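BUG: 3D viewer hangs when loading the predicted structure for this chain

Environment: internal workstation, default settings.
Expected: structure renders.
Actual: progress bar stalls at 90%.

Input used:
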Amino acid sequence: MTQPKDPAPTYLHQISHRRIDPPKLTGQTPLPHVLDEVFLSYNAGRLREACRLFVTKMLAEDVVVGLSLSGALTPAGLGISCLVPLVEAGFIDWIVSTGANLYHDTHFALGMDLHQSRPGLDDLQLREHQVIRIYDIVFDYENLLGTDRFYRTLCRGEAFQQTLGTAEFHYLVGKYLAGREDETGRKGRSLLAAAYRHGVPIFTSSPGDSSIGMNLAALQMEGGALRLDPLRDVNQSAAIVYAAKQHGHSGVLILGGGSPKNFILQTEPQIPEVPGLPESGHDYFLQITDARPDTGGLSGATPQEAMTWGKVDPQQLPDTVTCYLDSTVALPLLTVYALALHPPRPPRRLMERLPELMQQLEEAYRLRKRS
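Structure tokens produced before the viewer hung:
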């Protein structure tokens, strides 16, 4: 007697990833297990997909991972708790950040305190008591004045009297902040210091749009020779991605949106459109944002839209995830998941290799112009 054949799979089974049947949670359930087995649908499901994409594909040996950073994340302690550990594990190879995040990161390296409070405080009273507020974070006005003095004093030094790209500038600042951390026994407090120790370039796409830029502008009026060259940043960031795609893959982790998101993504259209070199876009795109796409703003723009600009490889759209969630919620979960499930990667030390990478891009550009 012949056995009955298995029924043909239905369309439902073709589109199903899994049956929804999560385990009961207990007080001992590990966080990665919660993300894998309980974060099933809606934005929890997208966060699970984001975590898996990051760990299973973006952290592969041949993937260069770029991070874009916007929103006031370092004042909330996410530099210390998440970004520094990710850099130290070799999970972040290069960064594009707002200047504000780097300015507030400096407070921690200098031993200045920020405090958790609550929203809805009386801002007039705060101003009268010289207290600064970022939503539910508060700190003394002296933090700003002291950090301003640090940057003005440091950048009057001879080492800074030259034209620098922002990655070169932040690397030099990070050297001094790492030294300060070592002196005070507070190692691991500063993203700038960690990036210096591990050779991670940090670009700022709008260097004048922060208190760091304001202080450098004041030094320029004093007659200082320090100049920041944003066009150098465009070429250096493109060189990083061009080299990554020659020998492997490029992935981007985007926290928020704004100018850092555009800058980290524009490396791909920059390569084929301006130097005219063959390129098809980033291979992996992971964005955490609370901005909506229907307002037309860049912060909410989807990877499908980015594909039309040449920023994302159209062949890799399945390897893109957008999670509509606050970065302060998603980043700690992503960090724990990655550190728990993936071994550290050796640091690429791209900052030290920038001259070599620029030479490769320039040589390819010259060959293309002659052909």
